[in-house]
Amino acid sequence: MKKLLAKTFVKAENEHLLESYNLIQLHKHSFNDLEVYREVQTSNNKRIDILAVSESQKAVILIENKYKSSESDGQLNNYLNFVRKKYSGYTIIPIFLSLDSSVPTNKEYFILDYHDILDILKVYMDVNGDQIFEPIKEFINYYISILQDELVRDEEDIELALHIYKKHKDAIDFLYAVHNEKADKFISNEVLTQISALSPEDKFGIDKIYLNYQETINFIYSVGNSIIREAFLEFVFQNEIPEKCYRDHIRVPSFIFPEWRQLDEILGVPKEEWWLNNAFIIWFERIWNNRLKLTVEVGPLDYEERLILLNTLENKGVKIKEKSKENGAKYTRIYTSAVKIENWADKREIIEAMNSLYNKKDFHAILTAISGAIHDIVYRQNPMTK
Fold first, then answer.
1. Of residues 339 and 10, more confidently modeled
2. Which pLDDT belongs to residue 381?
3. What is the pLDDT of residues 255-275, one digit of tens each?
4. N or C: which end of the chain has fewer CB within 10 A?
């Protein structure tokens, strides 16, 4: 459970929720007394998929699992209200687990997907596989293989879905948004205006059309809105970023540079699951107002090593808040920039935007500062290095 929480807390999609939690205290929790309940019935006769309770730590983890299904109206609100009433005074961590990082309607839920579960299991088996009872080991490996089969999309299906979405974007968005209010963030104002003008009877009729083709529409919409991954793969190819230095996540693709690995042996790597397991990370993400954002961040190293890195970066001109140097601080954002995307169905435009952000002078100034900091740290470790 600690690994699952660690993976949840480091996802970029969940950053806005972290300030509501005492991460240091949660990290210290052993959760040895954790009791896990399945299909917990609420006061409205709904059923929570998974509820994990630690009485000693006064903590509750609520997991709503959506595997090839979508949430029903008010479902997440109902679950959270029920748990808050039943476990008043507890720290409550609601998690929305889906196949592809779907956005929950209730913004208080953390986002987690089965790619994350797969990563956790693979790392766990790599480290502990030889010590696990053989039948359990076989079961976990079998489950890993099932997940891999489910998560690897057929390339022809993706290309076809992307082709349909590019030709009929407004129609797909219209059908999807009539049924899914959570889609508003990424749909044009023109489509939203059309939807707002619909009568209840019209909405009901259109929703029936959507429900008849729900699986197909959802797949086309999700592929169309994961075009950032397809663009990112072309971006890393154009800029010759090695395969071991990037992750083509469907929502927040990330990368580092090979020379940054020099710090791994000197300062160590993050102790918890964190991006590409380096002191630094760079990622792209789609944000509000149809903008593409580039972020550079320093991650959760051990305190002494992290302080060395932050002080060295500061000496190179990078602005570091004093709060970031406190014992217990884990993540320090040192650069962000964003650019408007006119058409999120146009892969070429997204690639151009990625390259535009990548080639900005202030971004390269940060990269120069990072390179200088790495040089100074490596040189101090080995004075013969130049």
1. 339
2. 65
3. 999 999 999 999 999 877 778
4. C
Determine the Cα–Cα distance for residues 343 and 346; give it in Å rounded to an integer. 6
For residue 209, which amino acid is it? I
pLDDT of 138 above 50: yes
Q: Residues 6 or more apart from 361 whose CB is under 8 A from it?
A: none
Closest C-alpha to 228, from 71, 69, 17, 13: 13
Would the pLDDT of 331 be above 90? no
Decide which of 95, 111, 127 is a domain's last residue.
111
Q: How many CA atoms lie within 13 A of 331 on its CB side?
A: 22
Same domain, 351 and 233: yes
Residue 186 has a pLDDT of: 66
Report how far residue 299's alpha carbon sits from residue 46's, in angstroms, rounded to the nearest whole number.
39
Pair type for strands 91-98 and 110-113: parallel
97, β-bridge pairs? 65, 112
Output the pTM of the full model.
0.56
- Per the structure, the complete domain to which residue 211 belongs is given by 155-220
Helices (H) and strands (E) in the chain, counts: 15, 10
Bridge partners (DSSP) of residue 36 are 52
Is 117 part of a structural domain of the chain?
A: no
Residue 110's contacts (CB-CB under 8 Å, 6 or more residues apart) are 8, 9, 11, 14, 17, 93, 94, 95, 96
Please give the average per-residue pLDDT across 120-137, as a whole number. 85
Strands, E assignment, 133-267: 246-247, 254-255
Domain co-membership, 293 together with 336: yes
Secondary structure (H, E, C), 276-301: CCCCEEEEEEEEHHHEEEEEEEECCC
Which amino acid appears at position 165 of this protein? Answer: Y
Q: How far, in Å, are 84, 242, 243 from residue 239 at the CA level?
A: 49, 9, 12
Pairwise CA distance, residues 284 & 274, whole Å: 16
Residues 295 and 208 in one domain: no
Residue 317 CA from chain centroid, whole number? 30
Highest mean pLDDT (candidates 43-52, 59-68, 205-214, 217-226): 205-214
**Residue 300 — φ and ψ, nearest 5°?**
-85, 75
Q: Residues 29-48: pLDDT tens digits?
A: 778 888 999 999 988 888 99
